[in-house]
Amino acid sequence: MNMQKKDKNDPLLLENQVCFPLYACARRVVNNYAGLLKDSGLTYTQYVTMMVMWEHEKITVKDLGAKLYLDSGTLTPVIKKLCSLGHIKKYRDESDERVVIVEITPQGRQLKEKVKDIPQKICCRISENKQGFSMEDAKQLKVLLLKLLSNVD
């Protein structure tokens, strides 16, 4: 075991990283969603994809990927699974066959009712923490995360 004195300003100390608590927090939050999504049969990535579909109903695969910050290699299997579950359908644009469109199905619209309480349940789980986490904290965190996301490529 190395007993050298630790330099608190060492940029490679885990405790000095912004990325690590962000990574660990994202994993824990997504794990909380997993339990709540179990009855719907959706993974977290499928759930956020359906959130975009509920909002837009019909969207190009390219625009869907941009909204979710997902590349086609990650998005393609998600779309394929959601199609096989009957929640969305995928087809080529008649005016430009290079463009692929995904569209929500009636079954996909009905799924929204099944998961509508999940955001509130997540908020309750987070705010029940011993240290508390208010809605104002959540709003501030969202602003900061969106700012960070816009600066990370």
From TrEMBL:
Listed name of the protein: DNA-binding transcriptional regulator, MarR family
Domain HTH marR-type stretches: 15-150
Entry superkingdom: Bacteria
An example molecular function term from Gene Ontology annotations: DNA-binding transcription factor activity
Keyword annotations of the record: Cytoplasm, DNA-binding, Transcription, Transcription regulation
PANTHER family: ORGANIC HYDROPEROXIDE RESISTANCE TRANSCRIPTIONAL REGULATOR, TRANSCRIPTIONAL REGULATOR, MARR FAMILY
One of the GO biological process terms: response to stress
Keyword Cytoplasm: yes
Membrane-crossing residue ranges in chain numbering: none
Places the protein is found: Cytoplasm
SUPFAM superfamilies, sorted: Winged helix' DNA-binding domain
Gene3D superfamilies with a match to the protein in the record: Winged helix-like DNA-binding domain superfamily/Winged helix DNA-binding domain
